[in-house]
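User: These chains co-purify. Model them together.
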Amino acid sequence: MPRGEEGPGWSEYVMPALRPTRAMAERELGFIVERAVANFLREHSPEYRRKDITGILIEEEPMGGGFVNYKAKVSYTKVVEDQI
Amino acid sequence: MSVIQDYHLMFPDLSSSTLEIIRHIVTEQGLWRVGKEEGFDLIRDMYGKISSVYGFPTPSLIEDTYEYYFISGERIGLPKVSLVSSLHEYRHHMQKHGRLRFSDVEVDARGWSISAFHYALPEDFDSSWSRGLIWYLPPYPGG
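Assistant: Joint model of the two components:
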């Protein structure tokens, strides 16, 4: 999974074409999210853990021929309490 | 890396209609007192109302393991009822439809959601900040 950019409290990952169409990808959204989380943990554990992930922004990147890649921006901070 | 800053002051000109909708869901509809299912319904209702203010389509909301916004599908996932988190993900929806003040979309979403809470419900905001219930803010002054 290629590494994307890094910003204030987020890391970006590019996930090559998981599914050939958006409709199929939407059905597999949980799978896309889990791949992003796994990539984040591989990079940031043990300093940051699963509970420290505060949000994920997922966007498509058309690759032609109906295929799409996915970019997932994973936000994180040291989470002590749930957010109100 | 995690950057904290005064996100609550970044959108002082936030729409008064949006602030009123937020006040309503908390003080009159009891967002923080109702059960999870009803809380999700209230957030869906809030999304519909705020979308009317800005003329955007209303995003869908589902309960899921993580907080996320799926841009192409206009779908928001939340693991629990949270006012600030629901507003944060909604701001990503606004960004899709052309609203972006700060170039970093995460900074922009934190600024909008935390400012909205601050200006809509200043006392609740202050109390929540002092108890560490808002992510990414600096330590509470004097706390």
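The radius of gyration of chain B is 14 Å.
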